[in-house]
């Protein structure tokens, strides 16, 4: 089948014949043809070139070809069930890859694949497109990938090409990307009416030629009854992690947790925030992470009160706390941890009071990560837990507590962000999913209460001003109760002080 594939008509005949063969025969033929081509490289790691990363039947580390095929089948089933016009028998789903983005001249930014495309295909090369064709009784996945180009591969590295992409991903067919326009034209020509599923709200970059091709396809196609966004369906699937995904989430959270320990040990008065940033990056990478999951926050002293502070270029003075919000990405799955610790190794009395307040609230919220609650419920509980503690410590003056409007305003100033979010392939994962739905087994969420007292906040007693604290863990929801994936990352003040004293 692979040898005859360039002859498209013969290829289609052979594909139908191949599909009728017994499973063991198909596997033998595929492996024989595949082994004959091993003198050429793929555009991404495979078992034959990276056995230290990949299992025999894995498309990406930890995720098998069968799981990717099952995902596409499930999406096709969901599209069929979601059709709003029963008279439409055919649907076409278009999921683009990311494109290479240029930083300056011919220097690219680090490439990161579009996670929806990666989730559905496992293919990691830029400027590709996954097309899923769905009818009442069948579905077909077609992958369009960059064609072999000796000149570009000299500079950018090998490409898989359409033949190897077919074997690697387990799609029904694969073609070179420059055949997409003709493919869509023929689909339109051969179908009187159909639905198009394409995320027009998050189009691929203009450098990706497929963007203009799909845009033109949508404009000129008068027979299409409606265009729908597949993102909510894909994110419903991504929300609940498979066994393989949970394993990857466990690995990425463990890597980041161990890296945090080394960063704490490397902390000292007058250390530069950029040094701790670099230390975190280094410790994650030597454990196998590809890169950090997002630009980390490394904020000393009052800078911790800037929620997304990422300049990371100041010295952290003796006696100040350092707040670090960081995580890593491991084979497409991310971690997201925040810890706060004294750069000198010892909490002051005021710092410890605020810290223990946040820690008590966080641990109480972790215990509520069950199917009885939603993230929205936990957000309300966060303030229910914080308020009496802040009043008892006199962080909130008694006169403020008597005015409900002033109390609410101060609480929002002291903790202006949400209590958590979904976590997975993206840091703020499955953003279209409501935080009001109940937590379900297989979800991974963050729990991250905080207290932020700016130095300019004259309502709060002076000893607490200039202190910012956040504690964030990653939690797997199970039937048997929450599993804190980041439990090995120190957060109890005694443990942090003991750790730093031993460094």
Structure description:
This protein has 503 residues and is an alpha+beta fold. The protein folds into 2 domains: 60-237, Creatinase/prolidase N-terminal domain (Creatine Amidinohydrolase, Chain A, domain 1); 242-501, Creatinase/methionine aminopeptidase superfamily (Creatine Amidinohydrolase), CATH 3.90.230.10. 39% of the residues lie in helices and 17% in strands. The protein has 16 helices and 23 strands. The protein has helices spanning 8-19, 23-35, 65-82, 115-121, 150-156, 161-169, 180-190, 209-220, 231-239, 243-265, 273-285, 349-367, 375-392, 398-401, 404-414, 493-501, and strands at 58-60, 63-64, 91-96, 102-104, 107-108, 129-134, 139-145, 173-176, 195-198, 227-228, 271-272, 291-292, 297-300, 315-316, 321-326, 328-330, 333-334, 337-342, 444-447, 450-453, 467-470, 473-476, 483-484. The chain has a 6-stranded mixed beta sheet, sandwiched between helices. Strand 6 (129-134) and strand 7 (139-145) form a beta hairpin. Helix 10 crosses helix 11 (273-285). The longest helix has 23 residues, at 243-265. The radius of gyration is 26 Å and the shape is elongated.
